[in-house]
Design brief:
Distance between the termini: 10 Å
Shape: globular
Helix content: 25-40%
CATH class of the largest domain: Alpha Beta
Largest sheet: 7 strands, mixed
Number of domains: 2
CATH superfamily of the largest domain: Medium-chain alcohol dehydrogenases, catalytic domain
Radius of gyration: 20 Å
Structural class: alpha/beta
CATH architecture of the largest domain: Alpha-Beta Complex
Order of helices and strands: EEEHEEHEHEHHEHEHEHEHHHEHEHEHE
Length: 402
Amino acid sequence: MKALVFNGVGDIRLEEVDLPKILNDNDAIVRVTLSAICGTDLHLVRGTVGQMQKGTILGHEAVGVIEQIGKAVRNFTVGDRVIIPSTVACGFCPSCRKSNFSQCLESNPNGPEAGTTFFGGPKSSGPLQGCQAEYVRVPFASVNLVKLPEEVSDHEAILLSDIFPTAYFGADIAKVGPGKVVVVLGCGPVGQFAITSCKLLGASRIFAIDNIGSRLDLARKQGAECINFNEEDPTEIIKELTKGTLADIVIDAVGVEAEKPSSGPAKKEGEKLKKEFQQELESIAPKLNVQGKQWKPGDAPSQALRAAVGMAAPGGTISIIGYYPPELDAFPIGQAMNKNLNIVMGNCPHKKYIPLLLEKVRIGVVDPTTILSQERTLEEIVEAYKHFDLREEGWIKVAIKP
């Protein structure tokens, strides 16, 4: 079969690989009918998430049709249409029984302390072969597949594999509710769904911050109050528009690939931290393979964290759902402590949220396809990665059709 294979930092190739096989009685083999490119995939290719093994198939978002099942899989049949949640869980360990599926104690072959297991990830995450392929093996399939109703299309469902649940998780753990003023940092796919989730949960005002026009336009269509950090100082604008009261909740949907302002009134502050940002980047990404403008990581790894602390009201909450590698240890803890901030964060337990969000999509409360900006074939996936990597206008979320 064809699959996108990691061969090194800055080196991904579409290759012919062996078809996956049933290895355990709880496995299923799914024929992928639609996958997608995620910002986390870019971390792996850029080198900001280390210890990727050569030969790993990338991708952790997929929708498909079951082709084979192991004899222990009793709730699905061959031919069922399914969503594959990005994170993998066993369904029976103490963490899973608390719906904390992303901290499963059994699914990671590296042991119970190894952390979250997901498809197409680094050595520490398993690794499992990913979903940017024609077929994928799904372990613990009884738990790690969600059956799709006929009314929900593949294009709607693909956004429920990872980014919509991740965004909703970020709003949920922050306790977004009626009357809350929320700032969403980053208007990429997760940021867009964070705005959607805050609306569903009743937030009174939602501010969205980014520097890419097409992303801000999409956020504005959702009703968010938009700020371009290359044109204005976001913290000062939040202060002005809230009469100094700041935000009840700040959702960091950016993570380690943040960029400091390149122009405007906020540029000066970013330049002051240039040395610190460079040290952070060297610690998390010692091996880069920048090719011109390609595969260049963000130049301010802790920028979003610092901004979040500044924008949150005293006693407010910061929700961190943007990805940060274990090597990053920069956080303005003193400022956060002295503002009595609540910090919530984590890897989304996707299986907990997918059924809830799937029903909202099925009955028409949410149309997730509004952020699907591009679709390419598996044959075109390397080129699609390159466009997505360069943060080009109009490349918000990319679906991949085998």
